[in-house]
Amino acid sequence: MKEKLNIQHVRPSGLELVEKVVSIQRVTKVTKGGRTFSFSAIVVVGDQNGVVGYGLGKGKEVTLAITKATDNAKKQLVKIPLVNGTIPHEQYGKYGGASVFIRPASSGTGVIAGGAMRSVIESVGVKDILSKSKGSTNPHNLVKATVQALMSLRDVHEIASIRGVSVNKVFNG
Fold first, then answer.
1. What is the CATH number of the domain that holds 140?
2. Which of 88, 99, 125, 163 is least enclosed by beta carbons within 10 angstroms?
3. Is 85 left (phi over 0), alpha (psi -120 to 50) or beta?
4. Which domain holds residue 153?
5. Sheet strands side by side (includes 78-79)
6. Residue 65 falls within a domain, yes or no?
7. pTM of the predicted protein model
8. Helices then strands (H, E): number in the chain?
């Protein structure tokens, strides 16, 4: 039985959002008159306290692409449950050819993640985490797989309310 995820969207007003440019690529459109160059950007925004969003933008100039991507990311903010600077449980995420695995870590471990995953995880505000990416290293797919894994996380209170039991009963069975 597939459960529907309880995704909590957040409004950007009143949040101190930090934006990180994950990747910028020059893309080319070949026409009869020659090549037309434009830029594609992927940006991750977060308040470093459990809220994150990503966005894609394209434009004739780099700054225009980044601005569009940032605006797009602010429209897609979601709340991620955090427990003492880490995540509540381990989780897999997959998007396209990229698959990621994230696991909670003890205090003082730091962020063990690379490339595009690191940008997303730091934007959420996770201080201690172990992660692994497998398959594609395409930054677009890695960002989407990481956000998908983070959105799949559930905290204890959410699980208790779904089961209709107390928080203590979730741990003690």
1. 3.30.230.10
2. 163
3. left
4. 81-163
5. 18-31, 34-46, 51-59, 78-79
6. yes
7. 0.88
8. 5, 8
